[in-house]
Amino acid sequence: MDSEPNEPWKLATNDKYYDVVKTIMGLSTASLLLPVFLARNFLNLEQSTPLTEVLGCSIYWAWFLFAASILAGIFFQYLSAKWMRTAWGKKTGIFFSENTKESTIERYMNGSFWLCVLMFFLGLILTVVFFVNYGHGA
Q1: Cα–Cα distance between 91 and 57 in angstroms, integer?
Q2: How many CB atoms lie under 10 A from the CB of residue 43?
Q3: pLDDT per residue over 41-73, tens digit each?
Q4: CA-CA to 30 of 20 to 30 Å: which in 15, 68, 92, 103?
Q5: pTM of the model
């Protein structure tokens, strides 16, 4: 590769988005364990009580959304690496394409970025809904 990219602004821009996605992925991963930890430690459950009796549908949906957020983040990171090749003016292909247009890569990156963020926040909302409802005896 060349020592200097053709479009250096892409490196700085990509780093900012990459950091956000990396943070969201870490939070999503931690949030997968959050309901189990909170249920055992803050809802005064006995150790003999199975969590399947306590956890509601919203927690299962939240887990699905957190997992989907992680997968969207992984896809973003894959696309990010491909987009970086365009900064050096190299041919870039995603999936089975030998040369994918830069605009296509950017569109997929934007979609996966916002899916990652949206699914994390929806999962977080469902987790809060569960604990608020549980606290009110629902």
Answers
A1: 46
A2: 13
A3: 777 777 777 777 777 888 899 999 999 999 999
A4: 15
A5: 0.84
Answer whether 134's CB lies under 8 Å from 38's CB. no
| Tokens 């992984």, residue located | 74
31 token code pair: 């949030």
Structure tokens at 46: 């006995």
Show the tokens assigned to 12. 């700085």
Token pair 């700085």: residue: 12
- Identify residue 71 by its one-letter amino acid code: L
Tokens of 70: 């992680």
Contact 31, 62 (CB under 8 A): yes
Print the SS3 string covering 19-50.
HHHHHHHHHHHHHHHHHHHHHHHHCCCCCCCC
